[in-house]
Amino acid sequence: MSEAKSVESRPYHHGDLRRALVDAARRLLESEGPSALSLRAVAREAGVSPAAPYHHFKDKAELLDAVAHEGWEMLHQAMDTAKSAAEGAHKLSALGIAYVCFARENPALYRVMYDAARDKEALPIEMHDGKDDSAYCMVRDTMVELGSDPAQAVDLELATIAAWCAGHGLAEMAGFKQFDQLKAELGGEKPFLEAVFNHLGLFPSLNRD
Amino acid sequence: MSEAKSVESRPYHHGDLRRALVDAARRLLESEGPSALSLRAVAREAGVSPAAPYHHFKDKAELLDAVAHEGWEMLHQAMDTAKSAAEGAHKLSALGIAYVCFARENPALYRVMYDAARDKEALPIEMHDGKDDSAYCMVRDTMVELGSDPAQAVDLELATIAAWCAGHGLAEMAGFKQFDQLKAELGGEKPFLEAVFNHLGLFPSLNRD
DNA sequence: CAAGACATCTGTACGGCGCTTAGATATGAA
DNA sequence: TTCATATCTAAGCGCCGTACAGATGTCTTG
Questions:
Q1: Chain B CB within 8 Å of residue A208 CB
Q2: How far is CA A100 from the centre of its chain?
Q3: Contacting residues for A174 by C-beta, under 8 A, at least 6 apart
């Protein structure tokens, strides 16, 4: 009874269904794509009845929110890693590249993430220790580290917005067939992405060196 | 029999149902939003049975394609008008503003347009007289008019892509709540959009004056 | 003008969907 | 042990996209 079956907190009589449902959703998302992600299919994949998820999520959107949330965490981590690996003025473009690469490597997940954002009309803001720890905030912080004046709050915010919008746009369109030839000429997708970012003049420090 | 009932080409016995369906879809899109746009609802709005649309469209996606197509035409026209109204170096940012404003004023339509593009993994290319007459092409042409070297084909294309991606990203995110305060500080949405575009350094001619 | 070919539309049906409700079952606290 | 409560199942509602058979109107051809 009191013995822990697997890791921690197995609150009730079926295991941790909430966790299992999110995992099942991510599995389906990868294997079948976003259009196959029905609540019933997720329940099926998790081996429970179609009504079971409603004890853990108010509705389908709330389940997708949970999936999206994990996506944002993954994106944040990917950007964090890329920033650490880059040097000085390259940190900012490294963030952009990491952002777009994440979206391109996880297209279905990225779509769920932004569908949720569009519905809520807001990017997710993740607070840790009372501080905004979102990926968006990370871009702004990096701009300051690279020389943007934090006292010029409006300019700083506008530059961050411009950068984020460009990243999102590129993330959604990098796979479009129109660009196939250009990608081939430039030697693949990653060089293509870097080249596009180099044509964005929003990073003064980028243009300088 | 040979008398024209309304304008031209009334091919058959119910009128021009294809036209009526697209109109009904656009009406529903405006009044109820994209989530209410079911094939059955469109048929209902047009006053026909749920199966009738299948004689004019292969499936729901094809109907939405037709709606999206009209959206792209409207966007193209809005951009064309804006370009004509602007002077010299301002033509490019005028295009960007017009693009984002169109998306913001027709959010549901814009969503249908890009959902279709994402599914096809391609922007629509509209040919007239054998020439690419798409809105995307219009941006590239404008860059050339403003001094970009058409011989540097790769650079020109990259700059166009960067500009388009930034426009799309901003179009999707301009309504996010995170930006409400900033928009208020800047005196509304349009000044906000202009400010973001000014922070995109992709337009050398923009930065110059 | 008659007759058949054809395009167009309706009626009906199928399976899947999101979600609700009622009832079964297991868990944890008194 | 009892009982409230959390969790899950079974069944069902109305909606969806789509298919198909048949009715109805239009056009062509003789």
A1: no
A2: 9
A3: A100, A103, A104, A189, A192, A193
Position A30 pLDDT exceeds 90: yes
Which positions in chain B touch A165 (Cβ < 8 Å)?
166, 168-170, 172-173, 196
Is the CB of residue A167 less than 8 Å from the CB of residue A96?
Answer: yes
Q: Are A202 and B207 an interchain contact pair (Cβ–Cβ within 8 Å)?
A: no
CATH of B61-208, one of 1.10.10.10, 3.30.930.10, 1.20.1270.50, 1.10.357.10: 1.10.357.10
pLDDT digits (tens, 9 = 90+) for A148-197: 899 999 999 999 999 999 999 999 999 999 999 999 999 999 999 999 99
Chain B environment of A193 (Cβ under 8 Å): none
Inform me whether the C-beta atom of residue B89 falls under 8 Å from chain A C-beta atoms.
no
Fold of B1-57: Arc Repressor Mutant, subunit A (1.10.10)
Is the backbone of residue B9 left (phi > 0), alpha (psi -120 to 50) or beta? left
Of A39, A80, A171, A44, nearest to A117 (Cα)?
A171
